[in-house]
């Protein structure tokens, strides 16, 4: 199955075709076919240096497309950048704020640039839970508050699409939760389509409807979150700890036992398989300390997908 392709009858808000990019002659993106459907929260996953920010910069026209195509709202970013940018909001890397101004004053500066109604300031302050900050200056805000104010600025002109690059990067646990809930609320209440890049897999799992996994500049998976989780089937493992793990490894070779990430594991085949393993060990005078299915979450699945690439 080619996880770099996906089929849908809907016209995507974002679609790249064979998008590739080089820096100083070195490939950083190779044949990226990204597709973001209307109404989705698309989690763009990958470790640092995988190519996430480069991809988003190409989508915004901050880097020139070298090879392939990048289309947003059905338009090519190379020929229709201004019409495209009027329909989206973005936050790439660090928030850009005026530290000596309040949240409302920061929004007023950008409201005039966007030509938005004055009433929109109150609306976005409510959306990002900053309505009660009053005369407090932005330089006194926590990093999470600054992040939410930056998102508020991006929302002033009612964008159909929001592009967020690592929005929880550097935040404390409360800031991460606040940002995650804001993203979900914007999608649910405002109908905003959102692409959010991250290397924090557990966070994406809690909010995304669709997922793309990029590693070393290549797209390894693209699809819905349920489709990604479906890949877990048949990969569940049974983790063991005994009084003689080396002996247990020899005894259970026929069951597929192996050492993996420092643990003794074998394929999990259901309750009957667990009972059979326990009997073999006990009959050979090996005490069993631990015998349980291993948690096979999105983090482990990501490791499985990227380990061979």
Automatic annotation (TrEMBL):
Can the keyword Repressor be found in this entry's annotation?
A: no
Signal peptide region: none
The record's comment on protein family reads: Belongs to the ABC transporter superfamily.
This entry's Gene Ontology molecular function terms read:
ATP binding
User: What superkingdom heads the lineage?
Assistant: Bacteria
Give a yes or no for keyword ATP-binding in this entry: yes
InterPro entries reported in the protein's UniProt record: AAA+_ATPase, ABC_transporter-like_ATP-bd, ABC_transporter-like_CS, P-loop_NTPase
| UniProt KW keywords | ATP-binding, Nucleotide-binding, Transport
Protein known as: ABC transporter ATP-binding protein
Q: Which Pfam families match?
A: ABC_tran
Q: Where in this chain does the record put each ABC transporter domain? A: 14-241
